[in-house]
Amino acid sequence: MAPKPPRAWQRMLSGRRLDLLDPTPVDIEIEDIAHGLAFVARWNGQTRGDFAYSVAEHSLLVENIHGRMFPKAPLKWKLAALLHDAPEYVIGDMISPVKAAVGSGYGDLDARLTAAIHIRFGLPAALPKTVKAQIKRADKVSAWMEAVQIAGFSESEATKVFGRPNADLIEDLDIHLRPPVDVRRDFVARHEELLCQL
């Protein structure tokens, strides 16, 4: 008798059962994404403050920065910026050195989940390269801010790793760590706001 394959699905709080090896858009709910991301810590939790800096908070910041960098971008790309790390609601936020050690398996899993999430919310399964690059630029600005403000990097160290952002772009942006329930609520609200405007 052949051994039973390992379980590759996760039960979500919405009641959905998400198959990580074959995710389908019908099994994806924004409330599950927001909840998961609000409780996943960036920087492996190595940040200052009374709360972890969550992927949901990071995603809200990246979407804000993306909007500042590309104010004429279509709303669907703003939504893509908000959802740029959405797969991490089930696979966690793996820091770059760990991703490099794990190899291509992580990237394949991330790509499958991203495609299902994008389709669920009306985005193309794979973003155009130019859009992906724009979101990555906003992501690097966010990473620089996080590194300096809450992760213990000096400005020069953060600049070597992420590049120095334009000071005018981030002049009035500060990172404030908040309870996960507040971040979850704001993530869902911003998602709904963008969908209503599409």
TrEMBL record:
Keywords: Hydrolase
Domain HD: 55-143
GO terms for MF: hydrolase activity
Annotated InterPro entries: HD_domain (IPR006674)
Domain of life (superkingdom): Bacteria
Lineage: Bacteria, Pseudomonadati, Pseudomonadota, Alphaproteobacteria, Rhodobacterales
Listed name of the protein: Metal dependent phosphohydrolase
Coiled coil: none
